[in-house]
Write a structure and sequence with these properties.
Blueprint (H helix, E strand, L loop, with lengths): L1 H25 L21 H6 L9 E3 L46 E5 L2 E2 L3 H12 L3 E5 L2 E2 L1 H7 L2 E6 L8 H4 L1 E4 L5 E3 L5 E7 L5 E5 L5 E8 L2 E6 L7 H6 L3 H7 L7 E5 L16 H5 L1 H21 L17 H15 L2 H19 L9 H11 L3 H16 L5 H17 L1
Parallel strand pairs: 1-13, 2-4, 2-13, 3-5, 4-12
Antiparallel strand pairs: 6-9, 7-8, 7-10, 10-11, 11-12
Length: 424
């Protein structure tokens, strides 16, 4: 009798599992309205259409994804281009001629670079090889809402964002009326929640595109024999705008690049589906991917439970619990103690002791004397700028001479330590 009941329940669970799978297969997928521009995303603000049509703009040429090895020939020639000291914010102090380190190199390859991202963050070590590549007579097209601070500073650019919800007096349609400098035709697009434009650009720059308010949205800057074009509204190249509006603007933008080998980086952000309400059986469960996975896991678990229960049940083996780890409790108590006493100076001292212990054990350097030889060896082994390391020691010595260290000073010192761990 018991086996018959178990068989009935097992059959019901299998039927429910089959129905759930069929429902998820035939249920229309919800749309995600997040701006990703990902090359494989078919969502409204993805970049699948542009990625599919990209080879047609460069007939007979190679079009592929950009890799770190493509800019490797320029890495050695730009090594150490940031050798100046740091300011109080930890930023590199740039010389008057910020691009003076660039030079012509013989025997390098020529190719276009196309960067299409919502937020383009290039590491400080990659900015110089990128500019060195342009200096040789190459072109790059960058479409992004925000970019690396160092890249914008070297090019003399500043970007500004306008949120229409916070400034209702602004005409949002004017910010999405785009016009090329050599054309009298204005192309109108449906406004998004915000708009970006270039509020500052160098005198040698040439404005190629403006919006309806006269703000520059496309700026061409010469870099040696090459040029770079920055466009501040990449959403115009998304699937939705290419299908719902005239794609002639995107075509003219891409034809700025010459017909040669092109390497691109498109849509580095990861998109996630959002809930789109549907009526029906288990609609909400299937609309939330984590909840759907939990539901199927539960069904499979119950199924395995009933299958195993059909077998003979043996006496369970007692489980011996492992000894409890009290280290976490000790860490919590010590952290709470430091927080209650607000002794930031002791915390700075402890962090410096751990830092020096890492230098001795990991990099095998003596820490008894902090001379130029010590900073040169530590910078060579860690790959961190010597000026940055000297800045850490100067700040520590300064704090040790003070009677106390406030919260802002401690946070500043902690950020320097975190930066060292990430870059070393």
């Amino acid at each position: 009798m018991i086996k018959k009941i178990v068989a009935i329940m097992l059959s019901a669970l299998v039927l429910m599992l089959v129905l759930s799978v069929l429902y998820s297969l035939f249920q229309p997928r919800p749309y995600s309205w997040d701006v990703t521009l990902h090359r494989l995303s078919k969502q409204p603000y993805g970049g699948y259409i542009l990625h599919r049509e990209l080879p047609h703009f460069f007939p007979g040429q190679r079009v592929r994804k950009l890799s770190e090895d493509d800019l490797l020939p320029y890495l050695e020639s730009t090594y150490g281009y940031l050798t100046d000291s740091l300011d109080e914010e930890g930023e590199y102090v740039l010389p008057a001629d910020s691009l003076g380190f660039l030079k012509e190199l013989p025997g390098v390859s020529h190719f276009n670079i196309l960067l299409i991202n919502k937020s383009l963050w290039i590491s400080d070590r990659s900015v110089a090889p990128f500019l060195q590549h342009l200096y040789q007579g190459n072109k790059a097209l960058i479409t992004t809402e925000s970019s690396s601070n160092l890249l914008l500073r070297l090019l003399g650019l500043e970007m500004t964002r306008v949120y229409f919800s916070k400034q209702p007096q602004l005409d949002s349609t004017a910010y999405y009326q785009l016009q090329f400098a050599n054309s009298d035709t204005t192309i109108r697009f449906k406004p998004y929640r915000y708009a970006d434009y270039f509020s500052k650009y160098p005198p040698q720059a040439r404005v190629l595109m403006r919006n309806g308010t006269g703000q520059a949205v496309g700026v061409e800057i010469p870099v040696g024999k090459g040029r770079v074009l920055l466009f501040s509204m990449p959403i115009i190249l998304s699937n939705y705008y290419l299908l719902e509006h005239d794609p002639v603007f995107a075509e003219q933008l891409l034809t700025w690049l010459p017909n040669r080998t092109t390497y691109y980086a498109q849509g580095i952000n990861v998109y996630q589906p959002v809930f789109d309400e549907h009526s029906g059986l288990l609609s909400y469960v299937h609309s939330q991917p984590p909840l759907a996975w939990a539901f199927y896991t539960l069904l499979v678990g119950v199924l395995l439970f009933f299958v195993l229960q059909l077998r003979r049940v043996e006496r369970p083996v007692p489980v011996i619990q492992p000894p409890r780890n009290l280290s976490l409790d000790f860490i919590r108590q010590v952290s709470a103690l430091f927080f209650m006493h607000r002794d930031n100076k002791s915390l700075v001292k402890r962090k410096m002791e751990y830092f020096l212990d890492q230098v001795r054990n990991q990099y095998h350097l003596p820490t008894g004397q902090y001379d130029e030889r010590f900073f040169e060896l530590l910078a060579h082994k860690t790959g961190v700028k010597r000026t940055f390391l000297q800045h850490i020691f100067r700040l520590y010595n300064q704090y040790m001479t003070q009677p106390e260290v406030n919260d802002d000073e401690f946070i500043r010192f902690n950020k320097l330590m975190q930066t060292f761990k990430q870059t070393s």
